Amino acid sequence: MSAFQQYSVGVCYYPEHWPESIWESDLRRMLENGIHTVRVGEFAWSILEREEGKFDFSFFDRFLELCSESGMHVIFGTPSATPPAWLTKEYPEVLNSNADGVRFQHGGRRHYNYSSPVYRQKVSLFVKALAEHYGHHSAIIGWQIDNELNCETSDFLSDADTIAFREFLKNKYETLDELNQAWGTVFWSQTYTSWDQIEVPKTNAIHAHNPSLLLDYIRFVSDSAISFCEMQAKILRMYVDKNQFITTNGMFGRLDNHRMAREVLDVYTYDSYPNFAFSVDTDWTKDTMHDRMSSLALTKVRSICPHFGIMEQQSGANGWYNRMEAPMPRPGQLELWAMQSVAHGADFISFFRWRTSPIGTEIYWHGILDYDSRDNRRLREVKTFAEHLEKIQAIQGAESDAKFAVVQDYDNLFDADLDKWHARVHDLSERGLFEAAQVLHVPFDILDLRPETPLEELMKYPVLFVPHMVIATKPLVDKLAAYAEHGGKVLIGCRTGYKNEHGTCPMQPMPGLLSELTGTTVEEYSFVSPAENEIVGDLDGLSLHAECFVESLKAYPGTDVLAAYTNSYLRGDALLTKRNMGNGAVYHLGSTFSRETSLQLLSYLNLAEPYDPWLQVPPEIELMSRIKGDKRYIFLLNYLQETKTILAKVPLYSMITGETIYGEVEVAGYGVMVLQLDA
Ligand code: GAL
Question: Is any ligand 1 atom within 6 A of the Cβ of residue 148?
Fold first, then answer.
């Protein structure tokens, strides 16, 4: 679903922040520096509807006219993230509330709730008027719905949300008996005898709720955000040209982004701030996993939409007037981060923002230009980036050359959002697998698994990691079984299969529904305190580190024990098992996929350094590879300020410089190299 035919560069622009007299020269300077698209309008409600029902588009008419004249493309945002003061004053029920049930004041942004019928009506009327007015404007290429759904808060606790939550539950359970049974409300006398006893989870005496209620509440928030987005998308589709795409910019939690992208959007866009809000005392010059971690987020985005856009790409230092500090990108970093996005599948890079705002909350969230508006180093870097993008246009549309996938599903993402035991192992394994794959230069994908995912999607990968499928459901377990039968290798970790879809724990040995696949049961389990000695196991001489959580496994006949614990109270117990299944195999690791363990496992599975025949790359450099036709494209990204040396074992074409490299070659600090070779 690529909405972009070729690589292009854009910028976020707020005509309402500047005197009209400089619009024209701003647009001219953008075009001179390789920027051909502006995103506008996403917070401009009070300009377009100053009083209820009185729409006045003259301001943006004048701006869009200039865009048409100069050949600038426009993405227009629907401003539902910032309802104006007249609206919240007249209809206070549109405001969100805090956990104590106190309505938020007007101000800031995202102060609304998704559920209020009045708000939905006001937004619909606005979007209809906007789409009718601009739906055929020649400058407009696309529409952004709202801004960053679920950013800043994903707690929706207004009265309107409680009413909508009850409806959501009625649709899901039909009867209170069903709901009480599913949630286990007999615990602590929580049984409901009338639907209107159910509330969204606000503050209670112990600051804790029934976890099954919370799980359904998170699903409800996700559904509400999607339906709010869908409501706007439907209106836009009725009025705007078919070739204008519809997107929204993410990516935030408590939201099934995959479903939203598939059912509602034409293309997904992401806001990438790799140097986001570093604390001032972080030594980010030495640790290559700071801004490099954004590649994990970009991998997730690629799984939502393989060819996506970046609606906001960091171009300056970060900071609001009161919080979040991060330094100015050093020479080269602006392009490095933009190329990081391209390497992972972005076709469109729109920098945030053209010029730093001299007014309002974000006076330290720097754009390309400073307040003084003079040409500067960052603008020169944007121009260079745009020129370099032209040189690699051939890559646009190439697919990721992933060597394995990490499986996720939203039941488990949502459960990890509320369950600390789950979050701890989830976060550790997510980071561990990512870091190991990074230093061993193994591109990987994230695979969102659902009952309807075709088996072919799974079969694209020889290996699937399913780190902690805490909630196991039969349709997903059957998918994994079919995958293994057909030759795939599945690796599951600890804490698998001990909850059902309601988040309650069936009375059966772990890994529950997956026990048949793994040919194991869990006999003992516990957290490992960091204060305890390091717990390790031996895998053919490779040392597996059991971090954070341990399980001792019992292997059924036919299941092989590959590694046993070599120390601690678990000494001699099975840590890693393998069961052959059909043409494939299922491995069960009784711990997390920590960085150390993942390094060993990737080597054990022969996945490490797949590009070794052509290249040797130091661990500090990220390698991302994409394939199109008979060509492979390799991005090398150096996140350090010092130069690093790579070894080209065969002559390789370097697309940005146009040279052929061979032997030892330097990649400059914060530098990028893009190589083309035969696939
Ligand atoms: C993004 C948001 C922008 C701007 C930026 C800097 O999350 O979409 O509107 O606020 O952060 O704070």
Answer: yes
For residue 299, the CA-to-ligand 1 centroid distance in Å is: 21
One-letter amino acid identity for 323?
A: R
Measured from the CB, is residue 151 less than 6 Å from ligand 1?
yes
Instruction: For residues 621-641, give the mean pLDDT.
Output: 97
Ligand 1 atom with the shortest distance to the CA of 43: 9
C-beta 266 within 6 A of ligand 1: no
Query: Which of 427-456 are b and which e, b meaning 16 or more Cβ less than 10 Å from the residue's Cβ?
Result: ebbbbbbbbbbbbbbbbbbbbbbeeebeee
Ligand 1, atom 10: nearest CA belongs to which residue?
A: 362
Ligand 1 and 362: CB distance under 6 A: yes
CB 480 within 8 A of CB 465: no
- Fold classification of 615-678 is Immunoglobulin-like (2.60.40)
The residues spanned by each domain of the chain are 8-150+223-396, 404-604, 615-678
Catalytic residue among 49, 312, 335, 547: 312
* Angle between helix 211-239 and 159-173 (nearest 10): 100
Question: 280 falls in which pLDDT band (50, 70, 90)?
Answer: low
Q: Does the CB atom of residue 350 touch ligand 1 within 6 A? A: no
> Tens of pLDDT along 444-466?
999 999 999 999 999 999 999 99
- 404-604 CATH: 3.40.50.880
The pLDDT tens digits of the residues spanning 39-56 come to: 999 999 999 999 999 999
**β-strand pairing of 269-272 with 308-314:** parallel
Distance 386 CA to ligand 1 centre (A): 23
Contacts of 305 (CB under 8 A, 6+ apart): 1, 261, 265, 267, 268
148 in catalytic set: yes
CATH classification (class only), 8-150+223-396: alpha beta
Give the distance (Å) from ligand 1 centre to CA of residue 587. 42
Let me know how many helices (H) and strands (E) the chain has, helices first: 18, 29
Token pair of 673 as six digits: 């190299």
